[in-house]
Structures are given as structure tokens and as C-alpha cells.
Design a protein that fits this description.
By secondary structure, the chain is α+β, with helices and mostly antiparallel strands. The protein has a four-stranded antiparallel sheet with strand order 1-2-3-4, with no helix packed on it. α2 packs antiparallel against α4. The protein is globular and about 35 Å long. It starts with a strand and ends with a strand. The N terminus is likely disordered.
Amino acid sequence: RRRCRSSRYGRNTAYLRATDCPTCPSIAIAQTVSPRTRKPTLLRRESIARIGIRSGQEDEFVTAYQQARGLLLETEGCRSARLTRGVESPSEFVLIVEWDSLEAHTVGFRESDRFPRWRELIGPFFDGDPSVAHWHDV
């Protein structure tokens, strides 16, 4: 286990592998140490999907999402999932899912038998492909 050379991250952050540290590209953020408890906590990733829904089918989409949400939550590494709806654009939704890691989403969910069932339930309401990106706290 190594520490980051950056004063911004070094004091409370432990590293194991390469690629994610913004100031030390040879090591990656594996976990942080909570300043309050001094116990390690995993960094989490969020997948944020912008989803356009066909006009007039928004309520049916919400019902389908409520049925499909369990498929996400039963995936190992999925911490939470919430769907928000646009106020000015009620046919636009944002799905925010918190994962333990990027792989929990891209491998654990997307490559599982749950993903086709997920898309079967909510996919018919899409107005084009959703835009999905992954984020982490800084």
C-alpha cells in the first residue's frame, strides 16, 4: 500500500494500483480514510444515465422502472438507485445508481442475466439511446 505524493490526497487516501490518482498517475485510489472515524471507506462510483422517454408514456415508464429497480439493487456492488424527472422537460429522466466500483456496473450488472430483463422492462419506452457516464467524488 502506498500513499499519494499530493498534499491534497495524501493525508487521508491509500492507493493500490495505477490509473486514477489525479496527481500521481502511477497509483490509483483504492480507499479513503474517514477523517472522523479514521476507518477505511471505499470510494464509490455513480453511473448517471440521461433517458429520454416517448411523449405520453412517462407514467408507464415510471411503473416499469419501479418493477425493474429490484434487478439493479440485487446486483452485488449496487448501493442505491434513484430516478429523477425533469421539471421543465417531463419526458426526460436521470437515473443515478451508486456502485462500489465501475466493474460492479460494467461487468456485474451489464454482463449478467439481469441486464436483458432490465432493458426488456424499460427499453420500450426509450426515445433514443440513453446517455450513460460514470462519476466519482473528488
